[in-house]
Amino acid sequence: MPSTPPRSGSDPSTAPAADTGAGPVTYRALLSEREFAGLYAGFTLTTAASTLSGYALGTLVQTRTSSPLLTALSMYAGILATVVGALTLMSIADTDRPRRVLLALQGISLAAVAAQGVPDLPLPARFALLLLTGFFASLGTGARLGLLSEVVPAQRYALARSLMNITSGAAAVIGFTLAAFLLRVLTPGQVFLLCAALVGAALVVTALSVREHSVRLTRRPGLARTWATNAALMRRGDQRVLLINLWVPNGLIVGCEALFLSYDSTHAGLLLAAGAGGMLAGDLIVGRFLTAGQRARAALGLRVLLAAPFLLFAVHPPLAVSLAAVFCASVGYAATLPLHEKLLAVTAEEVRGQVQGVESAGRMTWQGVGAVIAGVLAQGLGPAAAITAVAGLSLLITVGTAGRVRRLGSGNVQATN
Questions:
Q1: Phi and psi torsions of 96, nearest 5°
Q2: Contact at 8 Å (CB) between 56 and 183?
Q3: pLDDT band at 152, cuts 50/70/90?
Q4: Can you tell me the distance from the alpha carbon of 300 to that of 402, in angstroms, rounded to the nearest whole number?
Q5: Within 13 Å, how many C-alpha atoms sit on residue 185's CB side?
Q6: Do the Cβ atoms of 108 and 150 come closer than 8 Å?
Q7: φ, ψ (nearest 5 deg) of residue 401
Q8: How far from 70 is each of 50, 87, 219, 258, 279, CA to CA, in Å?
Q9: Is 168 within 8 Å of 141 (Cβ atoms)?
């Protein structure tokens, strides 16, 4: 964060806005709000496009090269570019015209995805477009989340993130299945053009439904602003411990999931489906049916649940037990909801977009790091032992930081600006 001293207490200039809406807080109530509905629809269309285009590019690269390495890079190189976005220009998420920034970024993504549809485009050009798309998508995520904290009252923020998380998880399950079907009747280039149409629709929906919010800018955005904010963010103990808990335990458990194919190639699909189902169930229950206080109290239990069931893999349990363990563990991903609420509470309003963008990029990065750690361990220990070891490390980090995270939910909170 910027270098001014932290403010403590319940300063209204930095606290999330109160929820003045009447009636029960439900998904339907959220979607009845025009601006949130527009942001959500744009997010849904963009997520669908990303899922379809990623599968199409992986299929194209595999067909052309038969190289597992290049195919894997075609699926994950975009994630690496999100880190570049977080480290360089993420401060544009907190400009005085976030809607304009989001629309411009969506326009760039539209052009990049459409360019992938060019027939016989060389692979180096495709990888360059992939990196470009990932870079600007990370900035778009920061701008969108910054807008979300403006258009959704604080008491509805977790519910809004829950709905978006559910949508993202559903897109991962449905999108890859749909992509596999589409590529039987369409070429990858045609699928890219379909993705471009989805991104274009997201741009139009956002433009028509979301108004401008121009209350956050305090300093000119840019590289220096991004570095200064990120450096101060990591110096602040409150934000740092929350980011560690949002990034590392989750990323390590994604590493466990990355070993499913090696652990049981016959039933890996079932294990992955069980994980997706548990994640959706957790987001639905925690985001929809628990109050903010209940979410805060459940946070530690959910974070322990995320890792503990994977310890059963040490004894090679029967398939039914493995599926139940993976489903229950994935419910624990919903711990990100109360952690996001805490992160907002200790973050100044004028930099929330950047901080949330950094959090999202860091979480994606740690998914890749977790997969690498788990893979390296599996080379020497075997998949089952590696899953157990990585889950144990995730659990150790959660328990070791539990007291600090719990204290952030009591007493005065500090917002750094």
A1: -85, 0
A2: yes
A3: confident
A4: 7
A5: 5
A6: no
A7: -105, 5
A8: 18, 25, 41, 17, 29
A9: no
Q: Which amino acid, one-letter code, is at 389?
A: A
At position 327, the amino acid (one-letter code) is F
Cα 150 to Cα 152: distance, rounded to the nearest angstrom: 6
Burial classification of residue 207, based on how many CB atoms lie within 10 Å of its CB (0-12 exposed, 13-18 middle, 19 or more buried): middle
Q: Which residue has the tokens 């360089």?
A: 88
CA 282 centroid distance within chain? 15
Contact present, 363 and 247 (Cβ < 8 Å): yes
- Is residue 259 a contact partner of residue 387, using CB atoms and an 8 Å limit? yes
Contacts of 335 (CB under 8 A, 6+ apart): 286, 298, 299, 302, 303, 306
Using the predicted structure, report yes or no on whether residue 80 has a pLDDT greater than 60: yes
Amino acid (1-letter code) at residue 360 = S
Residue 346, CB half-sphere, CA atoms under 13 Å: how many? 25
- Which pLDDT tens digit goes with each residue over 329-376? 999 999 988 898 888 777 766 666 667 667 777 777 787 778 778 888
Residue 294: name the closest of 304, 283, 303, 286 by CA: 286
Taking alpha carbons only, the member of 330, 341, 360, 337 closest to residue 47 is 360
Structure tokens at 317: 């349990």
User: Tokens in use for 262?
Assistant: 């090696």
DSSP annotation of 415 reads B
Look-up: residue for tokens 């890996």? 268
Give the span between the Cα atoms of 116 and 227, in whole angstroms: 32
Query: For 117, phi and psi rounded to 5 degrees?
Result: -80, -5
- For 88, residues 6+ apart whose C-beta sits below 8 A from its C-beta are 223, 226
For residues 415 and 324, the model is more confident at 324
Helix axes 237-258, 383-400, angle to 10 degrees: 160
